[in-house]
Design goal:
Oligomer: heterodimer
Helix content of chain B: 10-25%
Radius of gyration of chain B: 24 Å
Strand order of the largest sheet of chain A: 3-2-1-4-5-6
Distance between the termini of chain B: 58 Å
Number of helices of chain B: 10
Order of helices and strands of chain A: HEEEHHEEEHEHHEEEHEHEEEEHEE
Distance between the termini of chain A: 58 Å
Largest interface: A-B, 86 and 85 residues
Number of strands of chain A: 17
Helix content of chain A: 10-25%
Structural class of chain A: alpha+beta
Number of strands of chain B: 24
Number of domains of chain B: 2
Chain lengths: 435, 471
């Protein structure tokens, strides 16, 4: 079908990208120690982008082809639709260089299809309850598929992918803990330690107390730090910079954080949940230093950003928008316990949600810690707390990142849709309000 | 379409399921967006898909297909899922049961006075031009505008004999602006979602609305002052009432949250099953959710389980009156479903969702509410907001806001907070405006995993809240 679409398009447009994503995914949802639904998705989609020269620029159009309708008329519709559009000044072209790309073998494990779903679900629930959980909720997901792509610039490529994702929330009395385990292969899907950690954390968090509003140092565990890093990653996308959705606008080469903090987007990360060998345009992916030793080094870009703004093309293109792949924060030297012991008046934030901005450009925001939160006095945990909110400014948050722990985790969760490999982080002097 | 549904339902019956439903959805749409006054993106597309959900033993299962609609492929996928469900059934201690449902047969179509043609891009561009022309001044640093339309045709059948066909056209408009004045910036984001033809969009008169907002934001930035700590009475506008009612009443009254089914996703609720009839607001507070209001974002006449929609009275005179139910939660509560099952697209399971949620208007004018305040804050709209996963710890940060002194509006305020727990919020209501407002504040509401964003509207008249602490 992809070649049939090409035949119809070729000669009628100047640039095109045809992408097929054919995949199967499955999800079993756990609530109150029961499997409440088992879902199966079978998707086969064809995405077509075209650009047509008009004066000094291009008119562009995009569609999803429905293979159950007449493909020929859908393409003709797209071409007519595109012709009637104004020139898109944000589009200057697509990747047209070296057509070779390197496979990332670790992102596909055919054995994922053979995951013993019922055995894992039973084990997750039984183990949680045996170790003291009152209730367990979450999802077990696994999927696999193939992406194929051809472009007008001679690129042809395909890759297979697979993934497994276990998200579990453990409830114990009035406390909870949420942990995830993600993997691209069956053999690396070692989920049991995550369950044990979640049950222990929930048990330690029971009987939370009210906290006094004020300034606190905070250790963010990987789950909550991944949520913050997702915000930084999104802000580093140059389409968001142009649109006013970024607090990193006009900050290139500025010092934003301590030298201990760096952030990379690594599109070709081994075993990376978000790894892809090439981006939407067919450009091979690679590591991009977003923040290096505290300094903003690069934005994530498309070919059009490269041509229009003279920014390095980073392999994160969706043609007219930008997508981060895997956000990676290098580890530090100290253990998480050591970071905690360095707080006199602090909190441990294990999870968070609802990160919202008053102003994306200035970075003024607030978010709510979720699940277990612990208060730390003179380096020691004294109790768990509840009903707090963190308000502040993302540039201040970056400035106050002091150091990272020496162990990282791979996270995708409800709040962090961009896969992240992050350690725990000590962030000083955050404004905490308590209702 | 009907053949596919009948085949799927018959197959489920042959495989021994206890209950099944099948839905076929055909969608057609297009859209366009502008960034900083130049075209930034556009699309046109169509889709067809089949969704089958069934109960076998004590578990539910679903299959989604958007490609191969052959009988062989559908049979294989449903049989695979039946096998899986049988293997997990023994894990479950509790059965999943459905409350008795209505058997309905209905076809309905939302008419378009001015019909949308998805291929006619000029009809989109011409509608955005007047808006864009107002955003070219130096006081607008960034602007993002998008307009999309989608015609959704659904056919639904279940094993009980229900058959519903609907055709609903959706219009979605979004804008996001960064305004500047001297060295200060302020941002404004809002959604307009409606159901119908172009006439719905045209009635919004967005060129005037948005240019008015730009003028107000930039003017206010010049003179706005920070709020001093203290206790204030608040008069809040319809948009703020809307987000309050959506986040702190709508969500916690979803029975699946109350029962913990969304625990690991959108969270649970501070409301418990046995709290029916308890006081959660002052006598002034009556809150509705009505999916049958025409032309607004959350409109539908039958839910995704084929049950007839009706107005739900969530809170009556300050007392909890009703929760949102699908057939699963209705069974557990011993009530009848109030048709709250919705989907965002055909690939996802129906979940309990809001539709058009609003506060019942009272008798006071907004000016009389303001007159009744000695020291207060008038918060017309907001930008940042959030709430915890039990729907108790709420915050909205004002965008256009003013100080009230001795019953009069004074100078603009720089982004005051309304940060308060849900019970304090609704028990502090001491006056309700007389201007009904629903449908003009809308949003895409998120829930579930994968995230399902359904169109909803929310609102209310202006409200007077007494004695709220500002940090």
């Amino acid at each position: 079908m992809i070649q049939e679409i090409r035949k119809i398009i070729e000669g009628n447009v100047d640039h095109y990208v045809i992408t097929r994503n054919n995949g199967t995914s499955n999800q079993s949802k756990i609530a109150n120690n029961n499997i409440v639904i088992n879902k199966n998705w079978n998707q086969d989609s064809y995405d077509v982008f075209i650009a047509m020269k008009s004066g000094n620029g291009y008119k562009v159009g995009n569609t999803d082809i429905n293979i159950n309708n007449d493909v020929n008329s859908q393409i003709k519709n797209l071409i007519n639709f595109t012709k009637n559009n104004p020139v898109n000044e944000n589009y200057l072209g697509i990747y047209n260089e070296n057509k070779k790309f390197k496979e990332i073998k670790s992102i596909y494990d055919p054995d994922v299809k053979n995951l013993n779903v019922s055995s894992i679900l039973r084990d997750v629930i039984d183990l949680s309850l045996q170790k003291g959980a009152d209730r367990v909720g979450g999802v077990l997901e696994h999927g696999w598929g193939t992406v194929e792509k051809i472009t007008s610039e001679g690129f042809e490529g395909s890759y297979n992918y697979s993934n497994i994702n276990l998200s579990t929330r453990i409830m114990k009395e009035d406390a909870s803990s949420h942990k995830v385990k993600i993997s691209t292969s069956k053999k690396n899907f070692n989920y049991r330690p995550v369950i044990l950690e979640a049950v222990n954390e929930a048990k330690e968090a029971i009987y939370p107390e009210k906290l006094k509003s004020g300034k606190y140092d905070c250790v963010f565990y990987p789950m909550s730090f991944a949520n913050l890093i997702n915000e930084v990653g999104r802000s580093a996308c140059y389409d968001n910079v142009l649109a006013g959705f970024s607090f990193l606008s006009n900050k290139k080469d500025n010092s934003l954080s301590s030298k201990n903090f760096s952030l990379y987007d690594v599109g070709n990360l081994n075993n990376g949940f978000g790894s892809i060998p090439f981006d939407y345009e067919g450009r091979p992916t690679k590591p991009t230093e977003i923040i290096g030793s505290g300094i903003l080094k690069n934005y994530l870009t498309t070919t059009s950003h490269n041509l229009k703004y003279d920014l390095k093309a980073t392999g994160n293109s969706n043609i007219l928008s930008v997508s981060p792949t895997n956000l990676v924060v290098p580890i530090g030297k100290k253990s998480t316990d050591k970071l905690i012991s360095n707080m006199d008046n602090g909190l441990i934030i294990t999870n968070s949600w609802y990160h919202r901005y008053q102003n994306y450009m200035t970075g003024d925001f607030s978010l709510l810690p979720r699940d277990a939160i612990f208060e730390v006095k003179d380096g020691k945990i004294i109790n768990s707390v509840k009903d707090i909110r963190i308000s502040g400014n993302m540039l201040d948050v970056l400035k106050n990142i002091e150091e990272m722990s020496n162990k990282k985790e791979s996270i995708v969760n409800w709040e962090s849709s961009i896969p992240a490999e992050v350690p725990s982080a000590l962030i000083r002097d955050l404004d905490i309000s308590s209702i | 379409m009907d053949d596919l549904l009948k085949f799927s339902i018959n197959l489920c019956n042959e495989l021994g399921v206890e209950w099944a439903e099948a839905r076929f959805v055909e969608s057609n749409g297009s859209g366009i967006s502008y960034e900083n006054n130049v075209l930034s993106n556009n699309f046109i597309g169509s889709d067809k898909s089949l969704y089958v959900r069934f109960k076998i033993g004590n578990s539910m299962s679903s299959v989604f297909i958007n490609s191969d609609f052959s009988n062989q492929f559908i049979t294989k996928k449903i049989k695979d899922q039946v096998r899986l469900v049988k293997s997990v059934n023994s894990i479950n201690k509790n059965d999943i049961e459905l409350a008795e449902g209505e058997v309905n047969k209905k076809n309905y179509t939302v008419k378009q006075k001015t019909k949308i043609n998805f291929s006619d891009i000029d009809s989109y561009i011409n509608r955005l031009k007047p808006i864009i022309s107002n955003l070219k001044g130096d006081n607008v640093l960034n602007s993002n505008i998008s307009l999309s339309t989608n015609l959704i045709k659904k056919s639904y059948m279940n094993t009980e004999g229900t058959s519903i066909n609907s055709t609903i056209p959706y219009i979605d408009f979004f804008y996001f602006l960064t305004c500047k004045s001297n060295s200060k910036t302020a941002q404004r984001m809002n959604f307009y979602n409606g159901v119908g033809g172009w006439d719905i969009f045209d009635n919004w008169k967005l060129d005037k609305v948005i240019s008015g907002e730009v003028d107000t934001i930039t003017t206010n930035l010049k003179t706005a002052k920070k709020v001093k700590s203290g206790v204030y009475d608040y008069v809040i506008g319809s948009e703020v009432a809307g987000i309050m009612v959506h986040e702190s009443v709508g969500h916690p009254y979803e029975a699946d949250r109350i029962l913990g089914r969304e625990s690991a996703q959108a969270g649970e609720s501070f409301i418990k099953k046995d709290m029916m009839g308890q006081r959660v607001g002052s006598d002034y507070v009556t809150i509705y959710d009505d999916p049958t209001i025409e032309n607004v974002a959350g409109y539908y006449l039958y839910d995704e389980e084929g049950q007839k929609a009706r107005n739900r009275v969530l809170v009556k005179d300050g007392l909890i009156n009703e929760f949102y139910h699908d057939r699963q939660t209705a069974k557990q509560f011993g009530v009848k479903s109030n048709a709250s099952a919705r989907i965002d697209n055909n690939s996802n399971e129906p979940l309990i969702r809001m539709s058009n949620t609003f506060v019942k208007p009272g008798k006071a004018s907004e000016s009389s509410l303001i007159k009744d305040v000695k020291k207060g804050i008038y918060m017309k709209n907001f930008m940042e907001w959030n709430i915890d996963d039990k729907r108790y710890n709420f915050k909205a940060k004002g965008s256009e806001a003013y100080l009230i002194e001795n019953g009069e509006i004074k100078h603009p305020l720089l982004f005051p907070d309304l940060e308060v727990d849900t019970l304090k919020l609704w028990t502090s209501v001491d006056g309700v405006g007389n201007k009904a407002s629903y449908g003009l504040t809308s949003a895409t509401c998120g829930k579930g995993q994968p995230m399902q964003g359904v169109p909803v509207s929310m609102g209310g008249p202006s409200l007077l809240l007494r004695g709220i602490k500002h940090r």
